[in-house]
Amino acid sequence: MDDSGRGPPTRPPSSSSPSWDDRSPPRRPVPRAPPLPPLPPGTFEYFATCHPGNEVHLAAELAGPRIKAANVRPGRSGVAFTSPPGEAGSAVMHRANLWSRVGIRVLHVLARGSIAPPRNASGGGDRGGDRLYLFARRAVNWPALLPPGGTLTVDARLGGVTDIATPALACARVRDAVCDAIRDATGARPPPPPPPPPGLPLAATVDLPLLIAADGTDAVTLYRDTSGASLHKRGYRAGGAVHAAALNEAAAAGVLAAAGWAAAAARAGSAATSTTPSSSSHSEPPIVLADPMCGSGTLLIEAALAATQAAPGLFRRTAWPFERWPDHDPRSWAAAKGAAARARVAWEGGVLLGNDTHRPALDLAMRDADRAGVGHMISWSCGPAGGWAPECRPNMVVTNPPWGRRLGGMDSEGRSARAADHGSRRPYADADGELDWDGGGSGASAGQRQEAPGADDLAAAWADLGAFLRSSAAPSTAWVVCGNPAATRALRMRAASKAPLGIGGADARLLRYEVLPPLPPGGGVLNGEGVRVRAGEAAAGL
Q: What is the torsional sign of CA 484, 298, 47, 158?
């Protein structure tokens, strides 16, 4: 990352799926942030990564009262920030790992530099790999960061770097530079890391996970990864099993942030606590959130955790990389965890409702909600969405219906396209081969993925969703995730907004629908199929 606030480059969405129509404006590039002013000694610089489209929500988290980061600057697929003046540089990193719902991982900037070839270079002896080696070797006092016997791994995100053709070459040269520097200082090279346990990437188990990144130029940034495993892996998933089409937790948190869920839940909670029992006994709940196609319940579980102000990082069951670092501040970490544990509150501001046709998925949802401590907050139902008539009428809907494609961009051998780009060196790949550097998009592993539904099944699912919205959720606002514009036609509704969202390599949209009350008898106009609709819907061919 350079001073523009741009982070590690990410693979552009696949262009093989149908494109969104012209009424959906293209995603504007994130503008360059102004350069940082001179920073006081001891200030740490960080970059938190996220799904494309979630930068503004991640920036709000980082600048908010829980994390209290300084110099917050949204970039591409992430947000740059620094430690606040007057506190230990690692304290804000501890809070970011504990509290970020939308973030994927938190990177600590170790060094920046240029590996551009000299202007007078003849092109014979000066190579990009050699220049990268020299930069990495001189960048940091490596023996101070990796104690004797410590292990490391290196990942690379490079684009447009002169004379470095593959990320594997960059990884090898940086690793050689670190190992040679430590050998010269201590007499021994770091040992190779052992294989990680099933379900964890290598970066989660080594002592020093590193990333070298460039974004279209020969300017490079060297990071150490403070998170190890992706932050979307909260820890409340028993055995890691989720529904095959599930959004991962960070993507789900981004959807809820876009819908304004946290603020709405806080207002509802405040209203509930300030209302006397006698005055509220016959009133509707302040807010009713429903997911009519909830799968393994990720959206609802994340909504409940946000409403109760539960820090997602507290659910992690494995150690954090920074706990193994020589410069780790255990007092700061203990204080951050203690404050996070005390922050959780009870919430009685409304009702959370989930429905799905797939009973095994609901069983997973209920089990994981219980593990997260929010099972009592969610009511579950099993059946087709079109026939679901919850006892409390929803006034907010969030859902991720079938798209007709699989998240994660898996190839015919079950490997991620991103993983294939990194050859055999994949420190951020899980045991199933799925890279989780940017959190992927699906919460499911490769072994859990299923074939995409056929066109008839897809149309039926979206027609079911439309039937539920019209019959059981009007009036309300519905937020719907979709990575296939053709799938939305069966909904027969026009989106009020379409926000770009990059998940699982898909050019997805978060669609907002304003669900209006039913037409009065005889109201509206007849469309081409003889169905009464509003005039605007008839003009749009709905």
A: negative
CA–chain centroid gap for 37, Å, is 29
Spatial distance between the Cα atoms of 301 and 352, rounded to a whole number of angstroms: 9
526 DSSP β-pair partners: 532
How deeply is 258 buried, as exposed, middle or buried, from its count of CB atoms within 10 A (0-12, 13-18, 19+)?
Answer: buried
Helices 261-273, 298-307: crossing angle, 10 deg rounding: 50
- In this prediction the pTM is 0.85
Count Cβ atoms below 10 Å from residue 400 Cβ, excluding itself.
27
Tokens representing 158 are: 């490079």
* Pair type for strands 287-291 and 396-399: parallel
453: exposed, middle or buried (Cβ count in 10 Å: 0-12, 13-18, 19+)? middle
Q: Which residues of 142-151 are buried (b: 16+ CB within 10 A; e: fewer)?
A: bbebbeeebb
Which has the minimum average pLDDT: 7-11, 355-359, 428-432? 428-432
Phi/psi for 518 (5° steps) reads: -60, 150
Structure tokens at 176: 């050689």
Element (H, E) at 108: strand 105-114
Strands 219-225 and 105-114: antiparallel
Q: pLDDT digits over 473-486, tens only?
A: 999 999 999 999 99
Name beta bridge partners: 220: 113, 214
